[in-house]
Structures
1.
Amino acid sequence: MKKRDKILEFLLKPPMWVCIVVWVIGTLTLGGSITLYFVGLGLKLWALSVHLTALVFLILSVYAVLTVIGIPKRAKNNVHVQKFFGSYNVRAFVYAAGSIIFNTCYVVFGIIIANVGQSAWLGVLVGYHIFLIVPRATVFFIKRRDGDKDVQNVRAYAYCGLALMLLALAVIPVIRMVLDDRNTYNYFVSGIIYVTAISTYTFAKLGISLYNLKKVRKSDDLSLKAIKNVSFADALISIFALQAMMLKILPSDSGALSKLNPVLGGLVALGIFAIGLYMLVRGKKMLKALPAESDEQGEKVSEGE
């Protein structure tokens, strides 16, 4: 058995002693995390490591239970699971669907909190996330419609471009509130740790989106390219949000730094709008060319009959 297969076998069905160790550590760390809150130490900076460890081992404990009853091993042989791990396109659209669900939950939760707290800042963030849902949802909706697959892919690409242009406009109120210094945050931990965590997440998102753009560059599936362009646009907005947050949290005496927000914000909005406009124009041109090709194919079929 190859080393890779041995590792996979271990992950799908780890020995019982490994599961027991995970359960013991998970119980101890979870108990410790809860105890810290009861004694008034739960919000201390050093307690963060206990909370994170408890969360990690809680997830591992749940997975260990699933391996004992054999669910991961049975799932491995499922047709849909095999298709997910065997096809990059399938994985890309599953991740996109997950992003739609996540952003929808954020919007619902954000609307409630924004109304309760009367927070204009959270309100504009909710509005931006609504327009972040639209491009991905547009691709899914058009791809599921009946008709020629190539035509639907081009149509999804074009209308996703239009949705990206709307997203660029939706980002403007966010930029405006940052310039007015109305972007307020509440932190569970210190600002430095918060910025570090968000920075790691943001640059990971940007790196993944750039990698995916390179990977789909030679792909013929325009709907897949559209999905990856949306992810790239999302990463660009995250870069702006990170910079705005850093300039607000971290102390700075330089007045020149205050000019970074309008510059980067404007570039991000223009960049997203340009990507959307390119997709819309290119898609419309391809749609105009497709009917002529379809007619030629139809004539060839008629001649063959």
2.
Amino acid sequence: MNYKFLILLVLLSSKIFATDTEIVHSSLSSYMELKEYAYSKQKKDAGSLGVGADIHYNASTYKFIYEAAKANTYKPPLKEDLKIQKLFLQYGYSLNQNLYLHLNYINILDDNIAITSHGEAYAVGLGFKINDELTVDVTEYYTDYNDFNVLQSDLKLNYKLKLNTIGIKFTSITKYLLLNDKNKNAFTKNAKESYLTSGIKVHAHYNSYHMGIGAYFGKRAFAVMNDGCKIQHHAMEFDRTYAVGIGKNISNFVLRYQYIYQRATELPIKNKNVTINISRFTLNYKF
């Protein structure tokens, strides 16, 4: 993968679209994640870097993210350190003031260890604006790997309110996942055939500051997360996720820090109570 070409593509796209005066809230973004594993028998620590763009043009939205990650592993049981490259694409279109259609595509470009390398995910979703405070989004995902596939249904509710000068948004998320052909390989054999998990998020902003908290409850494995911008393609069954974050707007820049705690089981070896501590740093430039 040519990193310089991807970065050039982001910058070039922004210049092309920026010539039109109808663009609103478009942005370039970059992020870094640092992960520390405890009680894992496969991974020690990991890091990832991502770069992307979110372009609004008339009724359309174009979004892409490229992510590269590396993990230091225990050898044995693994033969080498882990290296991953992923691509996330999304197209959205406002059908009218109350209906929003979005299409997603994910490609695991390379994974030098897992059988999910070169896997692809596709999604179609529809958002409904019930009123100025409440919106509903329904998204259907299909993730295709060489040895198995995953069907996923997401239901998301957003409710906004304002308390004096503080804006608050409550989000509830429900995910149902169905794994097909999971018993044909050791990678997914110990996973459940289906999962039902739910999450809640609260985001607040005041002047140039904003903060958020969130949690997921219930088990999940091989899930698409973060509105199609994350995919869990390793054989780990998560049963806890907690997150807290804070950010600030400085001129056209948005700085964010997020801490995430996760607990999981490494499925192939049935290694339970693996904990993952994640620090995520994000920088956005809005134009």
3.
Amino acid sequence: MVDPDFGPIHLGNPRTEYVAWIDLMGTGAIMEWSQDTATTNIGKLQVIMGECSEPYDLELYPMMDGCYAISDSESDILQFTSDVFERTSEIIVNRYLGRDAPPAYFSPVIRGGIAKGDVYHGSDINGSDLDDHPIQDSILIGRAVARAHSCESDAAPFSCIVHPTGWQKDDFGRLEWCADKYHAQHLVDALNTYFDYYSGKEDVNYPKKKIRKHREMAAGALLREESVSD
């Protein structure tokens, strides 16, 4: 059959769940420049996501340089996301402070988005041609998935935007994951080292205009985040 038997009739009823999308920034550009650096950071993030998920009731859908986390618990999805940001931020901060190697500018830099709403899991889909393929269990679709992904694209480095559906607000909010003002300042300083390095790398496709924007966004989000949490 040329046209596979799959349509809305096969989806059934969606689950109403929280979706967190956490993504490595600049993977494509870094992969073109240094495959070893990009693949190492992808692996580190996936390990962190897996380990941080263990205490919580959620499902993970890894997507190469990022991962979706799904849960019907608001507290679990927020705490899990906070844990991932905290753990990943420690890598670049420890390297910046000389506690670990390699240099800070080889570290994974992440951002994320959270939303709530309709979610269809491939494992819940029945009666279509997908039933014959193991890839079905890897499928994740729905409005909440799209909204979480869209929020992430507007987030600052090491910041997570929360869509109104997931935060019970009239506008976009942010996940305030960093309560330690010293860690927040060290993280901003480490990111400035990261941005300085790539500003001087003509062979990396990271435009200086975008670097300036990300530098300003990171300082504004992380240092403001710290002051709100204190």
4.
Amino acid sequence: MQLTGTIQERVDQAIAFAKAHRTEKYDHEKFVNLYKEAGVPYTEAAEKFCREWCGVLEKVKLYPDSPNVVGDDGSELLSDIDFSFRILTDADDLRYWYDPDYTEGDYCDDCAIWIRENCGAETVPVASGGYYYPDKIWISPDGKLVTIFPDDGPCHQHIYNNLDDFLHEHLDEHCADKVEMVLVEKRIEGTLDERIATVIEFAKTHGGFRHCRLFADFYNRAPLDLSKLTAEQNLSDEAAAALVLEILQDNTPDYWNETTLPDIIQFVEE
């Protein structure tokens, strides 16, 4: 989806898109059992947060409107905005950020202690997220979010009214031009010929290359330009393979001895 308007308006549009294309439904029983296993209270605020945001942001990709990365060979690359988010779905992660005794002597020990002493036992971990390096996110009984970047320690905690406020602060400095949701991702293995065959088969399975994103192992944060493939109609497998090889060769640095390999392919909703 193309994003327009001010940076704040683009963030709002991206959030709305993500909520409309969530990749996983909220499973109440799963979360109840998860928090019980971790020994963490599944508070009303935590339940409301997980119900609203489960499967919403984990597979979102935000792209800028111009190249934002310089490759090793000096070429300019269009890469996604390096934002990540995930709901905590591992019992060890939950307990790790909740129980000060469980993290005793670890680098995050002070964070868990600070949360317990200053926010109470009903303020519980729910997620991690942010630009580049993610913050850990707790939620208090009144629904406010407490976030700490672990390397900074508890003296650098931040309070947000909700996740929308958190997202605006973390994304407002990084202008996104387009948002996509990754529906299927496949890591590609084998020889060059085997990998190209995998690419062709994946694209055929998902209706062609129009909604596919291909990444090379040379710099796999930047999707390759597949316009040579999408511009052609009714390509045979052999012709498509030849174009994939040509694209890979075009994107191989001059100082490499071999053609860069296709590394990851994605099917996206845009």
